[in-house]
Amino acid sequence: MMYVIDLFSGAGGFSEGARQAGAVVILAVDCWQAALDVHAANHLDCHHWREEVGGHPAELAGRLRAFIGANVPAGQLVHVHASPPCQRLSKANRSSRDTDVGLRLTRFALDVVQAVGCHSWTIEQVSAPAVRKLMDDRGVKYRHLHFDKYGVPSIRRRLIASSVPLDDLPVCVAPPLTLREVMTVAGMQPPEGYDAQRDGSSKPTRRRLDDTSYTVTTRAPVLWNDALGKELALPHVVRSLLQTFPPGYKFGKHSKKMVANAVPPEMSRRLLLHVMRHNSDAPTLTTAGDRSRAST
Ligand SMILES: C[S@@+](CC[C@H](N)C(=O)[O-])C[C@H]1O[C@@H](n2cnc3c(N)ncnc32)[C@H](O)[C@@H]1O
Fold first, then answer.
1. Is residue 172 domain-resident?
2. pLDDT at 88
């Protein structure tokens, strides 16, 4: 059995994939109450810590080790995942001051996952030069994953740093669904004339509906009508399917941002299965609980 701690959990995209991979998600940490409420509604037996992390990494790592000692049976595998926020690192905010702020929580996440000393960890972030430099400087292995190669029907691309090698992460043989196919799964046909998609940026580009979707953000993808020069937002059900959330996933308010923020569950399911295969030979963790049991 693998137990998972999800740092910067948001509404639980990563957690949902971990659950689907057969792991038990035991703790989600985030500062956004509405996202934790959604996480809690979908991951009933999970503990939730609402807090703004980013202080001393050793302090949080110590609390996580104590939590593991109290909640994970001895000898079980523990994986820690972190998805620190990426807004300040993305192309739209590339001033050096913003990059410093964005990098701080990524460095913090790396410090924490390494200090906890569990069997395995992953970090998801945008592939900004500053992030790559951080990982290179720390000798951490990472890969840029094109999520459409792993069963996600969008061109989302992210840097995944991991304690286990990702070179042999199996790709999906079948091509990804197109936006039109995902809309069909959702029971929706594009309105007449809306036969393209746009990326919602200030200098929008366009793709066909018969192409894979643009990365899901709060502004994209949108349907586009060339003749009218008008765009149309996609409904939540399509956006959440594009991010591979299961149809029954319970979202509340702010679902647009939560869906856009998420690690697509299908991506995290595949990542976790891969980590489990690598971890199956790993020695077991000595948790705080193990130590206290051993000393009595
Ligand atoms: C990229 S999103 C995480 C998405 C999530 N992994 C998923 O798959 O659904 C980043 C999250 O970090 C949270 N966050 C930002 N700064 C934080 C901080 N200092 N402490 C805790 N959470 C923070 C945000 O509320 C947001 O939910």
1. no
2. 66
What order do you get walking across the sheet with 194-198 strand by strand? 206-208, 194-198, 222-225, 230-233
Residues within a 6 A CB radius of ligand 1: 8-14, 30-32, 35, 52-54, 83, 85-86, 105, 261-263
Mean pLDDT along residues 221-242: 97
How many structural domains compose the chain? 2
Average pLDDT on 204-231 reads 96
* Ligand 1 atom with minimal separation from the 258 CA: 9
- As a whole number of angstroms, the distance between CA 216 and CA 199 comes to 9
**Nearest residue to 209 (alpha-carbon basis) of 188, 195, 226:** 195
Identify any residues that bridge with 47 across adjacent strands, giving them in sequence order: 27
| pLDDT value for 96 | 57
Give the domain extent around 220. 179-242
Domain contains 296: no
Give the pair of three-digit tokens for residue 14: 């990563």
